[in-house]
């Protein structure tokens, strides 16, 4: 008595399994599926860069000397000139709070992230206005797209590039940040001190942050000297030996102010000429005409008085649900044609094995398969010794509903 072979049928799940799995599928928000490297908190309300941990270092570099200065001023209130030292203390506290506020707004705000495309744009008409001979292949097909194309901005010809990652032509002044892995509007630079891209929507807060940091350094530096002279008189040696706290604060602020002060002056120059850091280093608009320059007053008005544009991507929106995979009817027909699951046939469902066809690789062939196929009217040509059944043109049983974009996957 021959021993029966114990095999399993590997095919798509049944209709009930599909309905059960989709019925318990929990929808997700866009920030949960975002392909960039950003970090999201508070349900997608706060958008940080991947190096947001550097904020702890920046916060300590600002907070430690500021807090030390405030404590030292608090001790001097009860000794001499209490009103003067009280006003100095209040000023230091206000500058410190403002500095931390602008730091938080800069690092936790969407800088102007551009949404990605699932498919590259159509190639028709794009090469009519481009002078580039470089081409990029569409990831989702064989369509070729020009690497760059030319557009007019304020009467000047500006070249925009195609982003292979986001599958789009970047708007003017936009660039792809390799750290955050996003295309960003009016990209200035990626600042490691705030752990975020500096771009269209957080650039005003960044300017306020570095400006208040410079003012705080100068404030602590100046009033540390004044307080030492008031307490110890004009004896420089006595001031150094008796008040090391003020001496350390003076040296620290003297070093730091060159960095933040120089950065502030440089960005004020960029604002007045309507440039970004990326454009200044790459295109050198000081040596050629700047297509974005509008004059000094209009440039200042554009930054400080214009309304900040709303974000393009609402990360708290629900992500669109992909179309369901219609494989239930195929599974039921396979069960009826070749036996239910748990029968003695082991098969593997494969798509794309033949041109537009549905191929069934028979792992353990049995004569009963041939009989079953003949009963179902599938033809003798499909029961040869190749151990494969190929239905050209995906000729499934007649009652299967077909859609144009049906994606059948083996589960």
Automatic annotation (TrEMBL):
Recorded topology in the membrane: Multi-pass membrane protein
Domain Palmitoyltransferase DHHC: 160-282
Enzymatic reactions: L-cysteinyl-[protein] + hexadecanoyl-CoA = S-hexadecanoyl-L-cysteinyl-[protein] + CoA
Pfam families xref list: DHHC (PF01529)
Transmembrane segments: 55-77, 83-106, 205-226, 246-272
Cellular component terms per the entry's GO annotation: endomembrane system
Protein keywords: Acyltransferase, Membrane, Transferase, Transmembrane, Transmembrane helix
Keyword Transferase in annotation: yes
Taxonomic superkingdom: Eukaryota
Localisation per UniProt entry: Endomembrane system
EC code: 2.3.1.225
GO molecular function: protein-cysteine S-palmitoyltransferase activity
Swiss-Prot/TrEMBL domain comment: The DHHC domain is required for palmitoyltransferase activity.
UniProt family annotation: Belongs to the DHHC palmitoyltransferase family.
Protein name: S-acyltransferase
Native organism: Cardamine amara subsp. amara
């Amino acid at each position: 008595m021959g021993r029966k072979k114990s095999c399993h049928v590997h095919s798509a799940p049944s209709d009930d399994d599909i309905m059960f799995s989709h019925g318990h599928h929990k929808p997700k928000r866009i920030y949960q599926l975002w392909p960039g490297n950003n970090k999201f908190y508070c349900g997608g309300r706060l958008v940080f860069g991947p190096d947001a941990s550097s904020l702890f270092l920046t916060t300590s570099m600002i907070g430690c000397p500021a807090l030390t200065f405030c404590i030292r001023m608090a001790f001097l209130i009860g000794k001499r000139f209490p009103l003067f030292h009280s006003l100095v203390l209040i000023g230091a506290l206000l500058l410190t709070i403002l500095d931390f506020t602008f730091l938080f707004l800069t690092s936790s705000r969407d800088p102007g992230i551009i949404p990605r495309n699932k498919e590259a744009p159509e190639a028709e008409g794009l090469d009519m206005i481009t002078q580039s001979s470089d081409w990029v292949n569409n990831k989702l097909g064989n369509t070729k797209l020009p690497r760059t194309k030319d557009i007019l901005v304020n009467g000047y010809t500006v070249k925009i590039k195609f982003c292979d990652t986001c599958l789009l032509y970047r708007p003017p002044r936009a660039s792809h940040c390799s750290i955050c892995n996003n295309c960003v509007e009016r990209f200035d630079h990626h600042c490691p001190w705030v752990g975020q891209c500096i771009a269209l929507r957080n650039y005003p807060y960044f300017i306020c942050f570095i400006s208040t940091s410079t003012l705080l350094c100068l404030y602590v530096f100046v009033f540390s000297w004044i307080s030492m002279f008031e307490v110890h008189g004009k004896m420089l040696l006595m001031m150094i030996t008796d008040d090391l706290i003020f001496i350390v604060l003076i040296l620290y602020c003297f070093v730091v102010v060159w960095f933040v002060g120089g950065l502030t002056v440089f960005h004020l120059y960029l604002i007045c000429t309507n440039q970004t850091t990326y454009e200044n280093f790459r295109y050198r608009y000081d040596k050629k005409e700047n297509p974005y320059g509008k004059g000094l007053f209009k440039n200042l008005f554009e930054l400080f008085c214009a309304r900040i544009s709303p974000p393009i991507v609402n990360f708290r929106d629900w992500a669109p649900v992909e179309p369901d995979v219609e494989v239930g009817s195929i599974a039921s027909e396979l069960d009826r044609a070749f036996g239910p699951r748990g029968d003695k046939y082991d098969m593997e469902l494969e798509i794309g094995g033949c041109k537009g066809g549905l191929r069934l690789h028979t792992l353990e062939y049995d004569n009963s398969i041939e009989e079953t196929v003949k009963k179902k009217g599938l033809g003798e040509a499909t029961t040869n010794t190749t151990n494969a059944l190929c239905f050209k043109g995906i000729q499934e049983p007649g009652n299967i509903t077909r859609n144009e974009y049906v994606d059948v996957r083996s589960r």
